[in-house]
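Take a look at my tokenised protein here and describe the backbone shape.
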Amino acid sequence: MADGIRGKQFEHFPEEVQKGIILHRSIDTYTDSHDVFRQSTKRLHEKYHHYAGVIVDIIYDHFLAKNWTQYSDEKLEDFINRFYQSLHNNYDILTERTQGLMPYMIERNWLLSYQTVEGIHQILTQMDRRSKNISKMQFASEELVEFYAEFEQEFTLFFEDIKQHAKQKLLTL
């Protein structure tokens, strides 16, 4: 939801949501300038141009979901169900776009589908459709398979850094 909130529009949300949006923006900025993330995007840039960063975000989501037990004691399914329940509980404060996506996200269980390459392919295909097939993201699962070990190694390095960054940022909010 935070991606669609521009400028100071976040100030219209409850304080805790504002903090989440600020944290999200900080994570995005940190990610875009991180050397390891940029290394991953370089592998895709020639073919996918400015969509490379979006694709790597999704690829990194795959490795987070796939390796969830390394990062959390909570089962991924339980975390996802709690997240979906939170969407329902806070429906009135969601953006229209998020409200519109919510039924599809839950019905198709997008977040759990991130665990598999096929699930990532489906997500990238849906995103490609939203770009009117300009991005060609639907084909990026081929690079995910081809460079799987490299992407996973890069994600692992990056994720250690992003956890520290988020922890520090939360202290300032």
Observations:
- The CA atoms of residues 23 and 167 lie 10 Å apart.
- The mean pLDDT is 96.
